[in-house]
Amino acid sequence: MEAKKNEKMRIEKNSGLYFVLGLCLVLGLSYVALEWKTYDDTPFRELVYVGGQDDTHENIPPITNHPEPPKPKFIPIINEPFPDDMDVEESIPEFIEPDPGTEIPDVPTIPDYVEPTINETIDFIVVEEKPVFPGCESASDKYACFQEMMQKHIRRNFKYPESAISMNQQGKVYVQFTIQKDGTVDDVKLRGPYQILEKEAARIISKLPKMTPGKQRGTPVKVPFSVPINFVLQ
């Protein structure tokens, strides 16, 4: 015959509830133990300072008021004339002759000042005073006037060679010439596709008038100038 168990006497019935209660109790005790504070039982004693009786203040020097230091005063220097009746002792330094065995070093000589030479040929762009084409003396921009007058001169004297037309020769001729110190045009250099065109370009440049020479530091210098002449058949 099987024994019957009483449901009220079963221990495992409320085991989950007992576990939760035990866990809460342990957490509560741990929190109280961590937050527990202790205090020193030594009674509080108030420290009161009594002037003249505390040994810690016996060596403090008394406060004294020092007088302010005198302020500097500016005294102007008066330029008084030197009195004529004052006796002034003139001291002439005594010359000490060196010993015969003493070696006297040689005093270096200062070379004479030599005026720096000016380069005879200065580029047209960097020369201080640019050459002036006749008719541009009163122009505000003499460089722009020089170029304009040069183009007018080329158009006025331009003539296409007949032999170049018959042989259908055309192209650009680069011309470089030098304006000399006296204003004349010389040292003409040509570079073009055909010799006939170069010859015509040289003829145009040979008709340039005499110009005012360029100057560097007030001294006339040689100034080169380049210009292209274009030969085109219509």
Summarize this structure as a short list of keywords or feature phrases.
flat; 4 helices; three-stranded antiparallel β-sheet; two-stranded antiparallel ribbon; alpha+beta; 13% strand; 234 residues; TolA/TonB C-terminal domain; single chain
Secondary-structure topology with pairs:
Layout: H1 15-34, H2 142-157, H3 162-166, E1 171-179, E2 185-191, H4 195-206, E3 214-216, E4 219-221, E5 223-231
Antiparallel strand pairs: 1-2, 1-5, 3-4
CATH class of the domain at 142-231: Alpha Beta
Mind summarizing the main beta sheet?
3 strands, antiparallel
Given as residue ranges, the uncertain stretches (5+ residues, pLDDT < 50) are 47-54, 72-82
The CATH architecture of the domain at 142-231 comes to 2-Layer Sandwich
Please tell me about this protein's structure:
The protein is of the alpha+beta class. The protein has a domain at 142-231: TolA/TonB C-terminal domain (2-Layer Sandwich), CATH 3.30.2420. It is built from four helices and five strands, in the order H-H-H-E-E-H-E-E-E. Strands 2-1-5 form a three-stranded antiparallel sheet, covered by helices on one side. A two-stranded antiparallel sheet has the order 3-4.
How is this structure best summarized?
The chain is an alpha+beta fold. It is 23% helix and 13% strand. The protein has a three-stranded antiparallel sheet, with helices on one face.
